[in-house]
Amino acid sequence: EQVWVPHPELVWVPGKCKGGEVFETEAGDVVVPKPEELESLGGPLVLEGVDDCCALSSVTPGAILHTVRKRYEGGTIYTNVSNVLIAVNPFRPLDIYSTEYLSMYREAQDMSAVKPHIFGLCSQAWSGLLAGVRSQSVLISGESGAGKTETTKLVLFYTSAALAGQDGGLEDTLIEINPVLEAFGNAKTVRNNNSSRFGKWIEVKVNPATRNLLGVTVIDYLLEVTRVCGQGPGERNYHIFYQVANDEDMCERMKLGDAAQATYLRANNLGADGVDDQSDLRDLRRALATLGFDSVEEAAIFDVIGAILHIGNLDFTNTDEATITTPEALANASALLKVDQQALSKALCFKRVATGRDVVMSPLDGQKARSARDSVAKLLYGKLFTWLVVRCNEALGQGLGASGGAGDNASALFLGVLDIAGFESFDTNLFEQLLINLSNEKLQQFFNHTVFKSELEEYGKEGIPVDAINFVDNADVLELIEKAGDGLLAILDDATSGVRQTDASFTEKACQAKAGHVRFLKPKFPGKNLFGIRHYAGEVWYTTDGFLEKNVASAPQEVLELMRSSEHEVLKDMAAEEDLPAGSGAKPGAAKKKATLGASFKRSLQQLMDKLKTSECNFVRCIKPNQEKVSNKFSSPMVMDQLRLCGVMETVKIRKAGFSSRMPYEDFATRYLCTVPADRRKALLSEAGSKQDWRVSAEADAKKVAETVLVAMGAEAGAFAFGNTKVFLKVGLYKMCEDRRKDALEPTCVKIQAHYRGHAVRRHMKEVLEIHKQLMSMMKDAGHTLHSKECTSRPLRSQATAHQALDKFDALLLRASALPVKIAYLQEASKVRAFLAAEGDIAEQVAAMKDSINLIELQALVAHIANYKLCGEEVDNLARRIEVLKKEAGVKRALQNALTLEDATELKKAIAEAAAADLGDRPRWLASDGADLLAEAEARLAEIEAAVARASAAGTSAMEDALASTCPSEIQEVLELIEAGGFQADNAMLVALKERARKLNEQRDIDRELQTCIAADEDGAIRGALEKAHAAGLGADGDAGWLLPNGAAHYAEA
């Protein structure tokens, strides 16, 4: 049997007993000291995360927490618990609030057919309202950061859509109150970046017959004015101050300078994620205009905000009669408030004291003057907020027109939306926490009555007597706090109105008066300003410091007179005195009793409760899933605390006070028929009219079966009740039914398990053998033998075939890995998969590179193929292509070199090499650039040969001319040309030319020497020169061997 097991982190988790006190859970084993006290899950339905926890056969704290947690982890933030909608803050935008979703819930005929949603709750409320049955209320509660403000916006969004299309557009104006209330009433806290620091009741009046909107009223509760003068670490002041501080034009007009450094802002001048102050200021101004605020009123509103910042910058001398040390701030504040500067200074530095009939102004010391400064700032802000709410109500009530007559108002119903702080319990709890917790006690009592009433309605519908059901009530706590005469608030009011009363004297009186109250807690050590209360949600200790001061609701007359003297009409309206409430008992002309915040709040709270009692209430409990404000994180202890504090667990208590479990007869009979002995079972089914002798058929009398089952179990009278359609069970009997069912089914379950396990093993082994056979076949096709490190050569398959084989192999591996029986060689088979994947890639590359001429890539591919020992025609074609490309590469290099050298011999050699490689024709080349090189080489060779032929013809003519020349230099030029390869010369002519050049050079030297000797007229020298001529075979005659024209003449002269 599965039970709810306590867990240190998850609080409650489903678990099964492993033996003794050890329980197995999804979060590990847990030791439970008293396992017999654990509650049963109540069936498998609880594990599915149902839409409504009350649909479960057994509603327990564990069932509620597990359902909310499972739904949140699945992305669903809404869960129903009876008539309570639990909304868990997702901390991220969701796409479930569009107009399409709104229309879906508006048009839904059966809310049980759609998922829990805030729009579904609104749809039910509006259906009841427009049917003219009863007014409707939506009560939204939760701690800071749980999403109350956003939920309120969604309710107003639905309301605006439900009323769309009316004359006057009042439904659009309704939406515009949000920017105003958020700017002046919301702030960043450590728990929430847009925390609402006040409670509000929004009442939308409608004539259900005509569906006309008659007006809207907003009532505010407990604005946290202390935030104006100081905030905790990591928190901000109200949004409006930062909106003003970020507007340069406004700061310049108000002479705020660097407004972020103002005393009331600079302590925690932090940004807030998700809050755009400048954009929000634009939205605020648009909303003010839509709500009918004129430019003068808007300017006055911002002037008051600027004046509060300047007042915060005031400082005083530390003397018995304090004076202001910051005159500039005083001047700016009085200018913005449009009051006399001296009058403002006097209101801050003096206190009005009444002595008999006389009134005197008593000076304040520095510390008290600073307190007075902060009091004035808080008063101004509180009055401004109240005035804004009043003006919004006026704007929202101006749409009555002709249809808003007395007849409409007489038949009007309302939709009320209550957004109020949830139960609070901090390390230090003050007067504000006492009032907030009082409101939650009142609402919890109302909630308990409502849930109890729904239980009574179901009992009545089923025809079950309810005399024995005890109602869980907290009336004693309310009596302790608010009872007239001697309640804590009454004692506080007396102390507030008394003379020389202090927080300590109030605490002492309270402890004396309430010492014997079961809900009251006295401090262990007397003399401390402290007392405690046992609330429905737990003990809370309150520090009474400041109780008396905070309980004073009336403002100092000197400050009110100052406001009335202002030239701002808005400030005068803010200072208007409120009349005593009706029924206060004050006699005309009698002295007015000092108004107190506690009495005022108690009165307004009672008015709210009276209004709620006239309506059908719908509850929304907003839950904050974690402190970090991040999405997808669910802190079970934190959520459990909130479910307890917001009263959801009271639903469980109320249900357990009666019959905690209930089932339709058919479900009960089917579930517990197995507890009846087998020999009695068939007869019972026959008596009940079942057509089948082994189960309860549809036409059987399931109630008769249920009665017999309970009698057979020996159930005690009073532990169960038979309704019209359901059987109702108390906790103990339900657990006994589950135990008997477990005992009856266990032997059969063991047999079924044994047969199934045998069947499963056989089925698995059959599948193992099938997969083994296919794996072996595919590994063999891949060239792999089991337990062999080497693979054999195998043909390369086509790309499609290889990929098909890989897909099939992957499918086999996936099936094998999912088997409960593991295949020993699965890891080795996984390595074969890499070969199959590589074969597919190789086949793809081979197909892509079959026409490639990139020799390097082809060689790399072939080497890669060789690593996998793949062969085949495609591989051979690649190898042949590589060989051809290699030959082409050699020929191309030879052609390129020959072309570079411009040498006919090399060109002929390269062309011959191409012909030898069978590359003489262009079609035979794979690389087109090789064929181009061959053509270029052939053309160049032809050019060179033609040039040589032309040079040879020209050379022959030049040689013939040179053989007839007597100029050695001309002959030398021809020889140099021949030597440089300019043309080819005949050898005989070349020899003759060289010999003629030698003789000419020799004769030129002899001729020069002869001329020199003649000129010198030296006999010996002349003789020597003549002997050289004789030796060279030269004489005096022209035919004497001379080639030079004047050689013979010079010889004869010599």
Give an account of the 3D structure:
By secondary structure, the protein is an alpha+beta fold. 54% of the residues lie in helices and 11% in strands. The chain is built from 39 helices and 23 strands. Strands 5-6-18-7-14-10-11 form a 7-stranded mixed β-sheet, sandwiched between helices. The chain starts with a strand and ends with a helix.
Describe the SSE topology.
Elements: E1 2-7, E2 11-19, E3 22-25, E4 28-31, H1 61-73, E5 78-81, E6 84-88, H2 99-107, H3 118-130, E7 135-141, H4 148-162, H5 170-175, H6 177-185, E8 186-187, E9 195-196, E10 199-207, E11 212-221, H7 239-245, H8 248-254, H9 263-266, H10 277-290, H11 295-312, H12 327-337, H13 341-349, E12 350-355, E13 358-363, H14 366-396, H15 406-410, E14 413-419, H16 431-462, H17 475-482, H18 488-497, H19 503-513, E15 520-521, E16 530-535, E17 538-543, H20 547-551, H21 557-564, H22 569-574, H23 597-613, E18 615-623, H24 636-645, H25 648-657, E19 661-664, H26 665-672, H27 678-687, H28 702-713, E20 720-722, E21 726-729, H29 731-781, E22 794-795, H30 799-818, H31 826-848, H32 855-867, E23 870-871, H33 873-901, H34 904-916, H35 928-964, H36 968-979, H37 987-1016, H38 1019-1031, H39 1047-1053
Parallel strand pairs: 6-18, 7-14, 7-18, 22-23
Antiparallel strand pairs: 1-2, 2-3, 3-4, 5-6, 8-9, 10-11, 10-14, 12-13, 15-16, 16-17, 19-21, 20-21
Helix pairs in contact: 3-4, 6-10, 6-14, 7-10, 11-12, 11-14, 16-17, 16-23, 16-25, 18-19, 26-28, 29-30, 30-31, 32-33, 33-34, 33-35, 34-35, 35-36, 35-37, 36-37, 37-38, 37-39
